Amino acid sequence: MLGAIALLACAVPIRSFFVATTGDDVDIVAVGLLDWITVPYILAGAVAWLRRPESRLGPLMLAGGFASGLSALQLTHVDSLYTIGAIFDILPAALFLHVCLAFPDGRLRSIRVVSRRRGLRGCARAAAGEDVLRRLRRAQSRRAFGSA
């Protein structure tokens, strides 16, 4: 199973390259930086899961890496892929924060950390919902005025 995950991780930059070449105005540096974050996070998560299967840190890192890869779908001009990317836009930041708070075993032990996490998770959900709606409205207004 981890081999399949590592293979998927290697496919992320290839997918990003094809997404970047579908449009004329896509910044190739932004795509490269996103892959620079995504692939090591996925591979480190796979290694962490392989070394310590009882820890939740590995799967959490894998989820963060794949969420980062999915957020890169915003760079395409295909409406459905852009929508999926916009939905996953803020999720990587929330998962990366969760990894930092849950280090080293992937679980939040302290009551203070758990209550902070709930507050941060609520803020991240609110920001993600507002951000997705704002992006979708902007994309819809661009199409309505013919400047897509």
Task: Itemize the secondary structure elements and their pairings.
Blueprint: H1 2-21, H2 28-51, H3 57-71, H4 79-87, H5 91-102, H6 111-144
Helix pairs in contact: 1-2, 2-3, 3-5, 5-6
Give an overview in words.
With 148 residues, the protein is mainly α. It is built from 6 helices and no strands.
Order of helices and strands: HHHHHH
Biggest sheet details: none
> What count of domains describes the coordinates?
1
Helical residue percent?
A: over 70%
Alpha-carbon Rg, integer: 17 Å
Quaternary organisation of the protein chains: single chain
Distance between the amino and carboxyl termini: 41 Å
- Note the overall shape: flat
Count of DSSP helices? 6
Low-confidence parts? none
The total of beta strands comes to: 0
Strand content: under 5%
Mean pLDDT: 75
Please identify the structural class as seen in this structure.
mainly alpha
Keywords:
single chain, mainly alpha, 148 residues
Q: In summary, what is this structure?
A:
The chain is mostly helical and 148 residues long. The chain has helices at residues 2-21, 28-51, 57-71, 79-87, 91-102, 111-144.
